[in-house]
Specification:
Layout lengths: L10 E5 L2 H4 L20 H8 L22 H15 L3 E5 L2 H4 L10 H16 L3 E7 L5 H7 L6 H16 L6 E5 L9 H4 L11 H25 L4 E7 L3 E3 L4 H24 L4 H9 L10 H7 L4 E5 L4 E3 L23 E2 L5 E2 L1 H15 L3 E5 L17 H20 L3 E4 L22 E3 L11 E3 L1 H11 L6
Parallel strand pairs: 1-2, 1-12, 2-3, 3-4, 4-5, 5-7, 6-8, 7-11, 11-12
Antiparallel strand pairs: 9-10, 13-14
Length: about 475
Amino acid sequence: MTTTRFPEGFLWGGATAANQLEGGFDSGNKGLNIADVLPGGKERLTVLSKPGFNWEIDKEKYHYPNHLGIDFYHRYKEDIALFAEMGFKTYRMSIAWSRIFPNGDEREPNEEGLAFYDRVFDELEKYDIEPVVTLSHYEMPLNLVKNYGGWRSREVVTFFERYVESVLNRYKDKVKYWLTFNEINSGIMMPVMGLGFAIQEEEDRYQPTFQAFHHQFVASALAVKAAHRIIQGSQVGCMLIYAPVYAYDSNPENVMYAHEASRFFNNFCGDVQVRGKYPAFINHYFKEHNINIDMEDGDLELINQGTVDFISFSYYMSRTERKEKTADEMAQGNMIGGIKNPFLKASDWGWEIDPTGLRVSLNELYDRYEIPLFIVENGLGAYDKVEEDGSINDDYRIEYLREHIDAIGAAIEDGVEVMGYTPWGCIDLVSASTGEMSKRYGFIHVDLDNEGNGTLERKKKKSFYWYQNVIKTNGEEL
């Protein structure tokens, strides 16, 4: 397959999140966070969708896979060595907020937590791997959820600022690239994970959701300004879920419906964090739905001053919309919505596979914002089989990634400025949406099942060697 030559210095690597791989949930004086109280399997989807979640651990009833993760907390040296063997130029990871401030509202950070990430960053530096660090990735301290209401509360902005200042000062010589909130627009669909609260049965979901978004926008702007002040040459990005929205047909009503759906989900948060102001369409939405955002004096000026340097985003699928639709037409397996696209195949979990949609996404984002883009999540969750000889022949994953990388090359040829590519779950880890281990994304297999049984042995898949060569040839050989 012919590709465009990726630019020199392109950041090839992989991506994970602390709550999905670290484990050690009660080690090193770490406090509980949101992920620690989410059960695995179908129960997790129920928790994420039902109102009034109580945030308690019930080990008699549920299994909690994030407690162990894949034990990166104790095995980080082994895992980073494998990343280096693949040739990673960068590694996107997150810091668990509750390792640094166990309850979130302490005055002083936890030294054991800070020291752990010192060791991780030193190990990355040993192999010349550039860290890209997410400050908040679905792992808000549980105390801030239970006693403050998560991002509903303005007080949480102060606690987040204290956390950010602590890690920026501690790692100012070790980390250049930072991301503020993982998939910030996910709060529209999943406020439990993204915003730290469950919608109650009696309340309108959008008033508290947009109020919480405003607090995150203020917090993000403070983080950007702090990074620029503390770390010379630092770059801070926002992080979005992006799914281009196609109209099902050329009916103008469906085209307009798809356009509005795209603006609401794909552009709202990006407009605020990149352009530094609330877009006109969302102000109209607030007025139309009687949503009133409580703002402090200076908030809008701060948001305008704290715009991001680049956009990072996850891309897994596109979305197809029609104004009138029935339940049996809906696409399965994701929380983004939309109806089935007759031109696309789907993964084992029902996520539609659309590599051209990644090229569309890159062009849409670059046309709108004209700042560098970074694909920090993309990948195929699939069932993997370990053969009798120990091999794992994941040709389906290679095909998926090959087509998506080729789409990135085409977008670069279109004129889009792309910084790098870090496929999601470069090593098998706990699924965020389902809490399963059987939904595997990695180049590296981890011997662990959905119930937490296994040796945790790491094993290289066929895709490991394929991606190794992709990096070695800078994307020329796919």
